[in-house]
Write a structure and sequence with these properties.
Elements: H1 29-43, E1 47-49, E2 59-62, E3 68-78, E4 82-89, E5 92-102, E6 104-110, E7 116-122, H2 123-136, H3 147-176
Antiparallel strand pairs: 1-2, 2-3, 3-6, 4-5, 6-7
């Protein structure tokens, strides 16, 4: 089942999500995982947190091979070495902002079967894990951006949207001709 993304100002996106209770699950964790997988695949994204699609559960999916489903994720180690990369987010389409994050992390989480996992990530996967964990903590990537990077990104997005609008008008006029 493909779920609809919440609007950027939805209160669930600013809420720290409580731990998922496998002993008394509010919803079948396998069904939650399927919703995340299908929605993530449909949107062709790197990651997706449950609260982005209106599910108040502490879980996210990362588009790796195979796809990772992370219930109650925690970061147990952050490297001192950092990297700066542009990040985007399904919640804020076309808005790419330079964000500084630790390059390597060690993590713990439970898969959809309730089995504990301990892994280390670096590079893009480490970045996506941190980005999605932020969502579950009520933090969006824009909160981590410097003011100057955020303003540059917003300006760039504004220009892209203008261009797209112009292209839409041209396409419509060609179709009407």
């Amino acid at each position: 089942m493909i779920m609809k993304l919440l609007a950027p100002n939805h209160p669930l996106l600013q809420t720290k999500i409580e731990s998922f209770n496998f002993n008394n699950p509010p919803e079948d964790p396998i069904e939650i995982a399927e919703k995340l997988k299908h929605t993530l695949t449909e949107n062709k994204a790197a990651g997706l947190a449950a609260n982005q699609i209106g599910l108040p559960y502490r879980v996210f999916a990362i588009n790796t091979d195979p796809m990772l489903i992370c219930f109650n994720p925690k970061i147990t180690y952050y490297s001192e070495e950092k990297s700066v990369m542009e990040e985007g987010c399904l919640t804020f389409p076309l808005l790419y902002v330079r964000i500084v994050r630790p390059k390597t992390i060690r993590v713990r989480f439970f898969n959809e079967l309730g089995e504990p996992q301990t892994l280390s990530f670096q590079g893009d996967t480490a970045r996506v894990f941190q980005h999605e964990l932020d969502h579950l903590n009520g933090v969006v990537y824009l909160d981590r951006a410097s003011k100057i990077h955020l303003e540059k990104a917003k300006h760039k997005t504004k220009m892209i949207r203008r261009k797209l609008k112009k292209q839409d008008k041209i396409m419509k006029s060609l179709q009407e001709a």
